[in-house]
Amino acid sequence: MSSPVLPSSFDAVVTRLRAAGCVFAEDEAALLTAAATTPAELDAMVRRRAEGLPLEHVLGWAEFCGLRIAVDLQVFVPRVRTGFLVRQAAALAPPDAVVVDLCCGTGAVGVALLAALAAAGTPAAELHAADIDPVAVRCARRNVTAANSRVHLGDLYDPLPPRLRGRVDLLVVNAPYVPTEAIGLLPAEARVHEARVALDGGSDGLDLQRRVAAGATRWLAPGGRLLMETSGRQAAQTAAVFADGGLLPRIDRSDELDATVVTGSRP
Hints:
Layout: H1 7-19, H2 25-35, H3 39-50, H4 55-59, E1 61-64, E2 67-70, H5 83-92, E3 98-102, H6 108-119, E4 126-131, H7 134-143, E5 149-153, E6 168-173, H8 188-191, H9 207-219, E7 220-230, H10 235-244, E8 248-254, E9 259-265
Parallel strand pairs: 3-4, 3-6, 4-5, 6-7
Antiparallel strand pairs: 1-2, 7-9, 8-9
């Protein structure tokens, strides 16, 4: 258990974070002081945050859908808006669903979806998560620990067990969708501290979406769904990509989270 931090120490942390440009300095100071076990550790954590390292990488975890998800250096930090993808998928899950989380990063989407299904009394039969980045896969294996769950290293569908073909009920994907030319416009916390492979969606941001949609019908069960986060600006294009892949697309939007999800159903 951490030692209590004196108010003067907390105030000093807030001052340092504000000086570094942290907008939510008091909230971050509370998290950092709670995590540190010694004054020296706190000083080191505050210094790393002030130098621009994302708070989640400093702490080693991110809060996502009410869960604490382990986050390693250079791994994509799960965004709050992606909780909309989890909610949309949970609402469509049949009993004993077979779930696949592609481009899984930390595995946050799959883990949160399993938790949501369990809370609703409809636990999934199994979860498979996959990512091409070995650093992300190592991180995901720390998070994806439920029974009948596995994390695979490889490119999209390539590492999945062949027995899953035609059996997947929910295929959830948060593939990178930032156009290559827009990478330089991202905040430094993403552009500098997250792997490029987790951000770059190609010239129009849809390269990975096309590849996922093109292979989806081979893996989805009859009536199975592919759910993918995209931007509001790209949603119509993503829906067209789904239709080209033989799926029946639908666009859903959350203004509260500024989130857009395209769902494609296998006929």
